[in-house]
Structures are given as C-alpha cells and as structure tokens.
Amino acid sequence: MKNLFCLLALISVTLPLQSVAAKIVNKPSSLTQMETDIEAGKFGKIVSVTIEQHGDIIYSRNFDKENGNAPHDIRSAGKSLTALAVGIAIDEGKLESVDQKVWPLLGAPADDIRNDITIRDLLTMSSALDCNDGKKRSPGQEERMYRKKIWRTFALNLPLMDGYQRDEKGYGRWSYCTAGVFLLGQVIETVTGEKFDAFVQTRLFDPLAIKEIVWRTSKTGEIQSGGQIKMLGPDLAKIGRMVLDGGVWKESRIVSRTWIKQMLYPHRELSKFVHYGYLWWFTPIRAPQGFQSSWYMQGNGGNMVAVFRDYDAVIVVQAANYNKSHASRNAFTIVEASLSSLQRP
Hints:
Elements: H1 2-13, H2 31-39, E1 46-53, E2 56-62, E3 72-73, H3 79-91, H4 102-105, H5 119-123, H6 142-146, H7 151-156, H8 178-192, H9 196-205, E4 230-231, H10 233-244, E5 248-249, E6 252-253, H11 257-263, E7 268-269, E8 275-276, E9 281-285, E10 292-299, E11 303-308, E12 313-319, H12 327-340
Antiparallel strand pairs: 1-2, 1-12, 3-4, 5-6, 7-8, 8-9, 9-10, 10-11, 11-12
Helix pairs in contact: 3-8, 3-9
C-alpha cells in the first residue's frame, strides 16, 4: 500500500500547479478561522468537519443547526462503499473477479446485447450503457431511474451507446452512471443471497462499530448501492482509516490489501490532475509541504472523505451544497485548511 501512494506522489509532482486544488481561493489560515468562515456562510451549508490522524479523531465539529448530529446524505460518496463491498465479495469467493460479466449473473438471456459488460466496466464508469448522469436527456440519467418503481428493471434494460469502443487498455468512454453502480449492488445480492445493506452491515459496518446509517431505497425496497446513504462524519473517518491501513481495522482484516491496491489505482485519467480508480477519486491537494497525493470519496454537495498517506490522516467534509457550482471548490478549501493544521509525521 505504501508503494502505491509513493507512486501516486510521483504522479502528483508532475502535475501543473494550476490544478483543481490550486484554484482554491480565500483559504482559512487556521481551524478557528475555518470555523468562523463556515458559521458566516462563506462556504455555503457545511454540515460537519472531522479530522483523524494516527487512528485518533483530533477534530470533529457539527455545524448543522437544523438537523443536529443526525446522519447526513453523502450522495455519491457512498459509491466508494460499493467498491469495498465488491472487493469483499471477491475476497470471499462469491465473485470470480472484476472481469466477470454482469448481465448473465443477473439472469439475462444468452443473446442480450449487454452481456459483455463487466464488473470492471461499472467500477470505472466505462461501460457501453447509454447512461450519463450529467445529461438530462441521457436514457440512463439517474433521475429517470428514481421515478421508476423497480430500479433493477430500468437499469438492466438501458440501451447501449452508439459507437462504443474499448481502448488499448480495455476501457470504453468514461461516462458517470449511477444506475451501473446500483447494479453492482444487485450483483452482490445475487451471488451472496443477502440484501446489499445487510451484506455491508455485517462485513464492513459492524466490524467498525458503525450503527447510524440510513439507506435510500426504491418504492419496492431496493437498496441504493449507487450512493445517497446517510452517515456520520466520525464513522466516515473510520472507513478512511481502514482504507489507509490497507484494509485493516484494529488488527482485523476487513478487505484484502490486494483489493485496496486495485481500488486505489488510477485506472482512468480524466484530466492531467484528476484520476479515477474503482469508484474512488484521486487528485493532489495543496499542503504546507507541497502537493499531497489523496484518494477520496466524493459526492454532490461537497461531501468528501480524503485519505493522506504522508500525513497518516483522514479528513471528512460533509456538506449540503447540492447542485451548487461552488460545492466541490469549497470542500477542497476546507480539506486544505484542515491539512494545514496537521504535522507531517
């Protein structure tokens, strides 16, 4: 795991300083100033900030005066939990590998045109599905799915995009698709015989003593494995710590180190400074010692769970700036301010 982050550190130093992280403006000079700016509304609606280092929570504050310390909807940051669930299913031998084909697993006929779509395709947002959450007219756009009574039927019958081709690495065009991640949850249910929420609870949440969770479901009770799960900031810090420690929590193996390495690998280069693994994001983030490599969970509204190997730290930002253009920028600003408060080991 350490070697992987060293590799990513080398990647990050080759990136131009005009990165996403470098575009942050009005950075707070301290945690006290950050609190003042949050309370003044300079970053929109920030729900909570949690900072963990060396396995200990060193800062945690909730700013949500409306809902108090209730679990908060982290939107698509929840997709990263599904990546962990897939890894656990592979570790247990319930899934063969990421090259396994999805539609046959879910009972599609032998002549289904979608039968070549693999688990890896869905983990890397590279499938042939005509599905793009960023385009309202896309047949697979997630809001269309939410209006349906049965999400599984909707997702399994999505059309294929025109002109789909794989590159030399086997990946198709990158297209952000929540419906595809929902199907990964359906795959886990099929191969394990367990509901997705129960599977995640027993394999991931129970070992980490995470209890306050609220899943979104369809009208028929399907679990939304594609995000929109409500959790607490300190519990998300536990997820980050387990990942940072190579799949181990308090000396107990949760998911294999092999899977963590595969998950936190830059499978897709989305720009010179943004990469995508298996439902996890990567970008360098500015710190006093220079840009630091960071893999992170990310969701609409400015929700982030960022892990930093060099600092042995996890920083969690929960926010409700849903569909706001400044949401991501503000989250990065808070992460940077939080990082500046830490001493590098």
